Amino acid sequence: MLSIVVLISGTGSNLKALLEACDNPLYPAKVLAVGADRAAEGLEHAELFDKTTFVVQPGGFASKDEWAEVLASNIEIHQPDLIVLAGFMRVLPKSFVDRYYPRIINLHPSLLPKFPGAHAVRDALAAGAGETGSTIHIVDAGVDTGPVISQQSMAIPAGISEHELHERIKEIEKQQLVKTIEAIASDELKLEEVSS
Ligand code: GRF
Question: Is 2-195 a domain of CATH 3.40.50.170?
């Protein structure tokens, strides 16, 4: 059974999809705890599923490394096999990434390396792209630069709003996240091989 700590910043719709998948006794992974960098709305999903939650806000720490150290100690209590960033909107410092690499993955709403960063959906629309999609990748010390694990594409419908396009991408992301974690848990997908 693959054990996971999920980190979020927002609404947590991907977290919810994963928690629902883990509720099936045949699913080979379990969420141990959910952390956030703010009082994120999505923590409610964790509470509904009786998961431990923790919030470590960067304000109040002298440096990003100190913040990440406290974040890591909250994670370490649970000794997870995998850390999943599901809408966690902070770049983690190298000290944190080195500690967990390659057992830390991120979900991103574009076909990386296209449109990295916090406004991927907006940037794809602004560029007039005909397609976009979602990427799951191993987290390295860059911004959305780590080795790609899986990608799914979709056409961008003409005239679609940023919000609506992001919602449609999230529908793809949820299934992709659940399937990818299942593949990691069953050893069908080896993160050490993807990262080498
Ligand atoms: C997702 O689109 C993810 O790719 C991005 O942030 C969004 C999180 O959405 N990094 P939610 O909080 O899971 O609803």
Answer: yes
Domain limits of the chain?
A: 2-195
Query: What's the pTM?
Result: 0.97
Whether residue 87 has its Cβ less than 6 Å from ligand 1? yes
Q: 106 is written with which tokens?
A: 């991120």
Instruction: Give the residue whose CA is nearest to atom 14 of ligand 1.
Output: 13
If pLDDT is split at 50, 70 and 90, which confidence band does 181 have? very high
Q: What is the DSSP letter of 47?
A: H
- DSSP characters for 92-126? PPHHHHHHHTTSEEEEESS-TTSS-STTHHHHHHH
* Nearest to 181, CA basis, from 41, 173, 46, 53: 173
